[in-house]
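Weekly structure sync, notes
Attendees: PL (lead), two postdocs, one rotation student
Agenda item 3: pending single-chain targets
PL asked that the sequence for the first pending target be pasted directly into the notes so everyone works from the same version. It is reproduced below exactly as submitted, 175 residues in total.
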Amino acid sequence: MGEREAYRALKHRSAERKRCRKCDDVKVADYKDLRVYLLAFESAMEIFELSRLFPKEEKYSLTDQIRRSSRSVCANIAEAWRKRRYEAAFVSKLSDADGGATETEVHLDFALRCGYLQKDVHTRLKDKYDHMCRQLTLMMDDAASWCTLGDRVREARADYFANARTLHAHDAPTL
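Predicted structure, written out during the meeting:
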């Protein structure tokens, strides 16, 4: 399945979830409950450990750049969460997180090409960052359901959360 088909499948699943009331029963108190944040944090920590093995001459270039970009994904998701009172600011910060994830993918490509990462590690991390980009895009496309109305926060769909309580037949991976 190509990238466009995968994106369409995710959008279709998102539309199905919108129609399913039971998916709206998860309340999120903190950005740390978001699956995309957890994936970004764990990936950034893995990159930190792997980059310790990069050559010393890369300390102030690739090592620093890949660490900063991977960490910025987490930081921008956290900032987006705090700015969800304003839909435009929320989307802007998610867009910054998406940009950081894409930048990290570029640095991963350089690390592979320079021989600092093995192919299987590179592929696994690229897949994680690609998944983050798709999740962030879905959140941006559905920003209104994430943002506040006055003093209330709209409940968000369960598929974005680490501790989702309800699974439905349409939650099965189709990618």
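Discussion points:
- The CA atoms of residues 27 and 114 lie 44 Å apart.
- The chain has one domain: 31-153.
Action: rotation student to compare against the earlier draft before next sync.
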